[in-house]
Design a protein that fits this description.
Mean pLDDT: 91
Strand content: 15-25%
CATH topology of one domain: Ribosomal Protein L25, Chain P
CATH architecture of one domain: Beta Barrel
Bound molecules: adenosine-5'-triphosphate, glutamine
Low-confidence stretches: 189-205, 793-797
Structural class: alpha/beta
Number of helices: 27
CATH class of one domain: Mainly Beta
């Protein structure tokens, strides 16, 4: 693509860079397209050219449909830095359509940070951290530069200006670098000790709570710092709360929680915890049509399972009377009116969609008395559903689509799960959320960024009613690709029986991943380590799996199992030969305990560990070859095979090489003794192996939508698997430690196979286990594969 070189030079790339770029098969055509979009084939300002280059080299597949939009934002001068472009790509990634205001907000369009502001903020930062900087000197410069750059107020400032300011202030505080700042050469340590030191370093946990002390969340106001329309509102608030941080997690009880909610739970409970505050679990139950008892129960269960205890459990419906009384006040203030417009009329009045202006409806100026009368009739059930609403008189001039005459109340005759038929008028989210936050003295109303535009109406309403005003702060949603998270869509899969239920382990509902064996700690660490900023986070399920694996690797006992058994006979051992072998539950971790398994003449190995045709790069069992059996002293050599009438190998005859000079085998495989006297092997009645539920990264964009994108191979059930008797000790141990109620918390690494857990369909008699008879207690064993052993699962997938 040499013909592109001069074009690339014209936009400001050096000759060298242009040549390199032209050689790059992916980047060259993308940059050419971007240049085309920008219509700068004949050249442009170098600054613009560099930005276009950054766009072309970093744009993702999912952001590509919005390429032209981003190009335009660069050429019109809205996006001025690589950082803004990166934020822009992230923002449009996977979006069907773009709201310009939200885009501008997310990318810092129009935000100017002066050198003076940089100076002030850096000075403040240095003052706050003076002790540490004075003690540790220039060693702190790198980490502090990173920390300063993360300050929300400097989000869009020039990186070079920040660095220079920090360098200057370090110099002023510490003077020039001297011998104290020369990095110490590490002393050479003996090999073994060095290895240990590295391991200790790697195992040190990062404090996942750190984001609440630094970064965007650390700069939220302190209780008492949020201005009120009347100062006495704050006095009263502080008197009630004692200055405590108060947050809330407010799910709508219309489905089960999903992994995105784990982020919301961690943010709300985590922020409060980090500041010695408290968190409400508030069921946002203002829509009786979608709510069911089972969802309420599951939500609190899941919050507790994740390790959080609500300070109080409340319901928006607790406040129906209070909300109603405030609605009367709003009407009396002339700030609400009953409206008989249809949904379409309201939509049309809103304007905006096709550039049309907003218009008031004929009901907007009806007399207060008339509204009071009609609102009373709404309450008395004298209107049909959809016939009338109560609307707030917000703002018709404003361009914010979420801030205009929003609906406050509607008529619904579905009985409410808590208030029954007491009410037939129900408040909307826009009316309820901010007021209930206010009643509960919430200090920080933390929610996801799709509510940014609702912030204006939130503040309007509390101020209009002159009640305490919390602060709303938004963080980016967690989206996981390769799955579906929306409750409505999962419900559709459940009702169409495309999955077994909400807790189907293939789903990313929290009950689903819990049943799949994922430990709550892994979920919490996963969401916290992703960080909490206003950016939307899009993560692939494989990244989640990696986190789960990491946790289980440290915590799950090992067990030898074979999913597809192949019989092995050690011909040189006596028929009644039995040796007890002690197997650690986790190698090199004595604290995890051990179990004992018999080693006998007849064994089972995994069929996948045997091949009739040997090859050079194959180290497992094959005719003539010697292979190790895990935890067994000597290797075994395959000397013969027996086949059935169809030519399938049914028995592998081996010699136990206890008589020949020991030679370390290239590999060790797992095995299980056939020793009925010791209860070995233990039958695994069902091993449920899960693969991704959908075929594509983005199931919604698949042809025919997500319902047509299901992977037929997402569940396979293996029957006839076997485990060593170690399973008995491990289950007994787990029951003793945990009580054994949550079966999925019995988790293992099945050696060389994957991570598994006990499924709730397992028949386990806890009383018998407690009486010491675990063998009889464990009657029907069902296990779920939580994750494969490695990302590229190889043979275990
Ligand atoms: N994917 C997500 N990432 C982070 N927070 C989320 C996510 N989904 C929901 N939340 C937050 O969890 C809280 C409770 O949400 P609620 O149950 O009302 O969810 P929702 O937005 O209706 O969920 P969905 O649309 O996914 O079914 C809200 O504050 C919401 O913003
Ligand atoms: N402000 C919020 O956190 C919104 C919660 C609300 N239950 C919703 O998602 O609709």
């Amino acid at each position: 693509m040499d013909e592109l070189i001069p074009v690339f030079v014209k936009i400001g790339l050096s000759e060298q860079k242009a040549k390199e770029t032209a050689k790059n098969k992916k980047l060259a055509p993308m940059l050419a397209t971007v240049i085309d979009d920008a219509q700068v084939g004949d050249g442009c300002d170098k600054d613009i050219g560099i930005l276009l280059y950054h766009l072309a080299s970093t744009i993702t597949k999912d952001a590509a449909p919005h390429r032209a939009y981003l190009v335009n934002k660069i050429t019109n001068g809205d996006l001025k830095s690589n950082d803004q472009i990166t934020a822009g790509i992230k923002f449009v990634d996977d979006l069907p359509s773009i709201d310009e205001k939200a885009f501008d907000e997310a990318t810092g369009v129009g935000v100017v940070v002066t050198a003076e502001q940089v100076k002030d903020l850096v000075t403040g930062f240095i003052n706050d951290n003076k002790d540490n900087i004075s003690a540790n000197r220039y060693k702190t410069l790198g980490p502090n530069l990173a920390a300063v750059r993360k300050l929300e107020a400097l989000r869009w400032a020039d990186g070079g200006v920040i660095k220079k300011e920090l360098d200057d202030q370090y110099l002023a505080l510490l003077g020039p670098r001297d011998e104290r700042d020369v990095p110490q050469k590490k002393k050479k340590e003996p090999k073994a000790a060095k290895k240990e030191a590295v391991q200790v370093e790697a195992a040190r946990p990062v404090d996942p709570m750190r984001m609440f002390y630094e970064g965007e969340l650390a700069r939220l106001h302190k209780p008492g710092g949020n201005k009120q329309i009347k100062p006495e509102l704050m006095d009263e608030h502080l008197k009630t709360t004692g200055g405590k941080v108060m947050t809330r997690f407010p799910p709508e009880p219309n489905g089960y929680l999903h992994i995105g909610h784990a982020k919301a739970i961690n943010v709300n409970f985590g922020y409060a915890k980090a500041h010695n505050g408290v968190t409400y679990l508030r069921y946002d139950d203002t829509n009786p049509e979608a709510e069911e008892e089972k969802y309420f129960t599951s939500i609190i269960d899941t919050v507790r399972w994740l390790g959080f205890e609500p300070w109080k459990v409340t319901y928006s419906s607790d406040y129906f009377q209070q909300l109603y009384e405030l609605a009367l006040q709003l009407i009396r203030k002339g700030l609400a009116y009953t409206c008989q417009c249809t949904g379409e009329e309201i939509h049309a009045h809103r304007g905006g969609d096709d550039g049309g202006a907003r218009t008031a409806c004929v009901h907007r100026d009806r007399p207060v008395e008339e509204t009071l009368d009609q609102f009373e009739k709404m309450k008395q059930g004298r209107y049909k559903e959809g016939e009338v609403t109560l609307r707030m008189k917000m703002d018709l001039e404003n361009g914010n689509p979420q801030f205009w005459d929003l609906i406050a109340y509607r008529v619904l005759y579905t009985p409410h799960h808590r208030t029954g038929s007491d009410w037939c008028i129900y408040p909307t989210y826009d009316y309820t959320h901010c007021l209930v936050d206010s009643f509960e003295n919430i200090t920080h109303s933390l929610c996801t960024t799709e509510f940014i535009q609702s912030r204006e109406s939130y503040y309007w309403l509390v101020d209009a009613l002159e009640v305490y005003k919390p602060v709303q702060w938004e963080y980016g949603r967690l989206n996981v690709t390769g799955t579906i998270m929306s409750k409505r869509k999962i419900l559709k899969m459940v009702t169409n029986k495309l999955v077994n239920d909400w807790d189907d382990p293939r789903l990313f509902t929290l009950v689903g991943i819990r049943r799949r064996g994922v430990p709550p700690e892994a979920i919490n660490n996963f969401v916290l380590e992703l960080g909490v900023t206003t950016n939307k986070t899009v993560i692939n399920t494989t990244r989640f799996d990696a986190k789960v694996r990491e946790h289980l690797d440290n915590t799950a006992p090992r067990l030898m199992t074979v999913l597809e058994p192949l019989k092995v006979v050690l011909k040189n051992l006596a028929d009644d030969f039995v040796e007890d072998i002690v197997v650690p539950n986790k190698p090199r971790d004595a604290a995890m305990g051990e179990h004992t398994v018999p080693f006998t003449k007849v064994l089972y190995i995994d069929r996948a560990d045997f091949r009739e045709q040997d090859s050079k790069d194959y180290y497992r069992m094959a005719p003539g070859k010697s292979v190790g059996l895990l935890h067994v002293k000597h290797p075994v050599r395959c000397v013969d095979i027996e086949k059935d009438s169809q030519g399938n190998v049914v028995t592998v005859i081996c010699e136990y090489e206890n008589d020949v000079a020991f030679k370390k085998p290239k590999t060790y495989i797992h095995w299980i003794a056939d020793c009925p006297a010791r209860g070995s092997p233990v039958k695994l009645d069902e091993v449920r192996v899960y693969e991704p539920l959908f075929k594509h990264e983005n199931p919604e964009k698949a042809e025919g939508g997500y319902l047509n994108d299901l992977n037929e191979l997402s569940l396979s059930v293996v029957k006839g698997g076997l485990a060593t008797v170690g399973i008995y000790d491990q289950v007994a141990d787990w029951v003793n430690k945990t009580g054994g109620k949550d079966k999925e918390s019995m988790r293992w690494q099945f050696v060389r196979t994957g991570y598994f857990c006990l499924d709730k369909d397992t028949d386990l008699d806890l009383d018998l286990v407690k009486k010491g008879n675990v063998k009889e207690a464990l009657r029907h064993i069902v296990v779920n594969r939580t994750v494969t052993l490695k990302e590229d699962a190889g043979k275990s997938s």
